[in-house]
Structure prediction request, 94 residues.
Amino acid sequence: MYTKFSKDCFCYDFFSYIALFVGYENAIGCLKSLVLTFALMDRRLSVEEAVHLSLLETEFQVKIVTISNHLHPSPVPFLARPSDPSTSLALLPP
Prediction:
């Protein structure tokens, strides 16, 4: 049989873990990286380093998307129908 004291201790521990997970979720959302968040929580990075690396990663992804859109202007290039089906393979039926 559980006593009121043990129930209160369990509730306190449970809610303290919920706060921990909410903190991790917010950090992951801000840094946009699970790896950077865990490195920050493990104190392998400072906050300034983590933010700098997150911004660097975001800039890199923007450049990759820009280059990709420049090379493939169609929003979904593999669904575009070829002008001459006999010269290229198409994923869609003719």
About this structure: DSSP finds three helices and no strands in the chain. Helices lie at 4-31, 34-41, 47-71.
